[in-house]
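DM from R.C. (forwarded with permission)

"hey, sorry to bug you on a friday — could you get me a structure for this? deadline for the figure draft is monday and I only need the backbone to look sensible"
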Amino acid sequence: MTGSEAVGGEPLLEVRRLRVDLRTRDGAMRPVDDVSFRLASGETLGLVGESGCGKTIAALSIMRLLPPSARIAGGEVLFRGKDLVSLSEERMRRVRGREISIVFQEPMSALNPVFTVGFQIAEAVRLHQGKPRKEALDEAVRMLDVMAIPDPQRRSGDYPHQLSGGMRQRVLIAMALACKPSLLIADEPTTALDVTIQAEILKILGRLQKEMGLSILLITHDLGVIAEVADRVAVMYCGRIVEEAPVRELFRSPQHPYTQGLLSSVPRPRGPGARGAPLPAIEGMVPDLRHLPAGCSFAPRCSHAHDRCRSEIPLLAETVPGRKVSCFLYPEVKGSPVFPSSQPA
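My reply, with the result:
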């Protein structure tokens, strides 16, 4: 969505060695383990991976909106140099909505069914900007117009069930951007939408990003969306980032075996998958986060794995300027022994 010049600036957001523990009835797990990344002003970073790899938990950690069964076990989340992890809840509430907003993937769950959409957007404006009711309602109508919703004045009086899925998603984005945040976290914002509606929403987001100087953390499993809108990509597997690269370089020459497997499984007009030919698949299953194998979590599924992969965790390291990978195939990558402390306490 943005030019590459944004990438080299001072980070708006910097996540450092973030770890999150989650307790379930079946045992403890660490869905986010030693995750680090940076996001510059005006940049779009795509966080991609299979369902259950920890993408959404990482996003909720940034917002400090984790469920009661989860806790941040370590690391820092620096936003404009402030560590959000150590902020009081009162100060964190001032950050949410006003400086950082989030769009969830299920608009029917995120919107209140008993209030009109205009009222809900206006309430966000009143809460975070302190505007009087009439001004807030006018701003709600303006944001619906910005999101290309026809007849925004009338639609502001509609309830969520009266709108299509695409319109509900636009309402959520309008609510998230009404207070003009610096950072938007978009968690699967176009999932289950018609491809035409998906393209329209992504186009609107791109335009608003340029107009507002917005930074976007885009969480998705859709590689097509990543290719369309992201500046850089971070690939997650079993709670860890295994590769990070500028989007074009990642698609041109993926380095991590997991990334290579993901990209090779995408259907193309010519090549594997064309005319009914079977697509290549990554063999094996994603391991249970409660019982991860020693060493690299991808080792049981990797054709390149050797003894070191099964005993040490490869650290994320820069292989060439701007590219990072967590794999012993690359001599720059160092490893760390597996200690009991690497698992949830």
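R.C.: lifesaver. The longest helix spans residues 195-212.
me: no worries. The mean pLDDT is 89.
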